[in-house]
Amino acid sequence: MAWLVITIAGLFEVIWAYFMKQSQGFTRIIPTIIMFVTMFTSFGLLSWSMKFLPLGSAYAVWTGIGIIGSFIVGIVFLKEPANFIRILAVSLIIAGIILMKLSNKNV
Q: Which InterPro entries does UniProt cross-reference here (predicted)?
């Protein structure tokens, strides 16, 4: 259950990162409100999952999902570049998340 919760927390991290960008430096109220609500939710879920998962694993998976999700959202919705080096970098992050999960099979 903790792994599912940390995954959901990571997805909320992607949402708040996107809306932070959309807030344009906190000058747009609706994106700013959405950002704070999803940020609070993400941190709350992260905190709960850390009751059951090792700190390093939970934080690495949470940030990794945020990085990968933000990378994809940036490419798809914000038309950011998707060159070989950026794709290689995110592939290495994915490999790290998989290894982190595999290293904690008993949790």
A: EmrE-like, Small_drug/metabolite_transptr, Small_multidrug_res
